[in-house]
């Protein structure tokens, strides 16, 4: 297995798709079912909930159910429409999901929060400058208040 890069923005090995993170901290990823799961390799942050939305375009009875390894979730997936599966926040590690008979599978890699984030690095640098000069302090606090 490949080691995962510790920074966001670096191309992931294989066809792994990174879950999108909403500002609320919720992570989402869409999975198309058509002769398999697309993507079948997902990377998401550990310690945050993850919502998978399945769209089934394959009438193979295999895909009528999807079964997760952790937590153990067994969900029916109708042919039409979207089926949402919410995984709670979990520690770093691998979660697998398979079709009802285990013929098709996908995996979710829950990885530690990349640290520090780009924004975090910029902030900590700004704070260091602020502590040196004092002058940057006003700008820092005013840019903060504009975020809320
Ligand atoms: Cu199957």
Explain the overall architecture:
By secondary structure, the chain is of the alpha/beta class. It folds into two domains: 95 residues, Cupredoxins -  blue copper proteins (Immunoglobulin-like, Sandwich); 34 residues, no CATH class. It contains two helices and eleven strands; from the N terminus they run βββββββββββαα. It has a six-stranded mixed β-sheet with strand order 1-5-11-10-7-8, with no helix packed on it. Strands 2, 3, 4, 6 and 9 form a five-stranded mixed β-sheet that branches. The longest helix is centred in the C-terminal third of the chain and has 16 residues. It is elongated and about 55 Å long. 14% of the residues are buried.
Short overview:
This protein has 148 residues and is of the alpha/beta class. It has helices spanning 118-133, 136-145; strands spanning 17-18, 20-21, 27-33, 37-38, 41-45, 50-56, 65-68, 73-76, 82-87, 93-99, 105-111.
Mean pLDDT across the residues is 80
Q: Which consecutive residue ranges, at least 5 long each, have pLDDT under 50?
A: 1-13, 134-148
Query: What distance lies between the first and last C-alpha atoms, to the nearest angstrom?
Result: 41 Å
In N-to-C order, the SSE pattern is EEEEEEEEEEEHH
Structural class estimated from helices and strands: alpha/beta
Give the quaternary arrangement of the chains: single chain
Strand content: 35-45%
Instruction: Just give the CATH class of the largest domain.
Output: Mainly Beta
By CATH, the superfamily of the largest domain comes out as Cupredoxins -  blue copper proteins
């Amino acid at each position: 297995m490949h080691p995962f890069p510790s920074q966001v923005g670096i191309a992931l090995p294989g066809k792994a798709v990174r879950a999108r993170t909403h500002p609320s901290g919720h992570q989402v990823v869409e999975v198309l079912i058509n002769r398999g799961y697309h993507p079948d390799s997902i990377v998401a942050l550990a310690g945050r909930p993850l919502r998978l939305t399945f769209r089934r375009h394959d009438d193979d009875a295999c895909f009528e159910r999807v079964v997760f390894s952790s937590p153990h979730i067994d969900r029916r997936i109708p042919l039409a429409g979207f089926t949402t599966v919410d995984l709670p926040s979990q520690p770093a590690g691998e979660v697998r999901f398979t079709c009802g008979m285990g013929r098709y599978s996908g995996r979710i890699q829950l990885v530690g929060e990349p640290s520090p984030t780009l924004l975090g690095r910029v902030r900590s640098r700004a704070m260091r400058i602020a502590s040196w000069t004092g002058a940057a302090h006003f700008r820092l606090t005013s840019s903060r208040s504009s975020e809320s």
